[in-house]
Amino acid sequence: MWEFDEVVEVRSGVVNGVEAPAQFLWRGRLWRVCSVQSYWVETAAWWERGVIGSGVGAATATAVAGSSAAVGVLDEKWGPQRAVYRVEAGCGRQGRREVFDLAHDPDSGRWQLERVTDR
Predict the structure, then answer these.
(1) Residue 116 half-sphere exposure, CB side, CA atoms within 13 Å?
(2) Where does the DUF6504 domain lie (predicted)?
(3) Half-sphere CA count of 86, side-chain side, radius 13 A
(4) pLDDT for 33-79, tens place per residue?
């Protein structure tokens, strides 16, 4: 698994019957979302900015669907909550597929790529 903190451009649509990222542009490549593996909402009180899902005293992560939430970070750039989508996406003619964690701040509209899992 590779950790990132990169802003990405995302086009939303319906994937597997759920409103979610449908395509995103990352490092000059267009990735098409094939499936949404899971989705969750991470929340943090303003006084608890920092690591999410790390235990007592940390902000909480609430799993909405699929697997449990991964550890993430809410900082001053984010609102009080964000949605995270774990998606499988393909790129190019060969259809190379990877698994990505894309975070969305509904207050600012900002999207960020957080993780890429090697397949």
Answers:
(1) 13
(2) 4-118
(3) 19
(4) 999 999 999 886 544 555 444 443 333 344 444 444 444 455 556 66
Question: Per-residue pLDDT tens for 44-54?
Answer: 654 455 544 44
Task: Answer for the pair 86, 66: CB distance below 8 angstroms, yes or no.
Answer: yes
- The single-letter DSSP state of residue 8 is -
Residue 34 amino acid letter = C
Structural domain span for residue 76 = 2-117
Give the total residue count for the chain. 119
Residue 73: helix, strand or coil by DSSP? strand
Sequence-distant (6+) residues with CB within 8 A of 2 are 115, 116, 117, 118
The identity of residue 31, as a single letter, is W
Q: Is the dihedral of CA 116, 74, 17, 38 positive or negative?
A: positive
Q: How many domains, the chain?
A: 1
pLDDT recorded at residue 49: 52
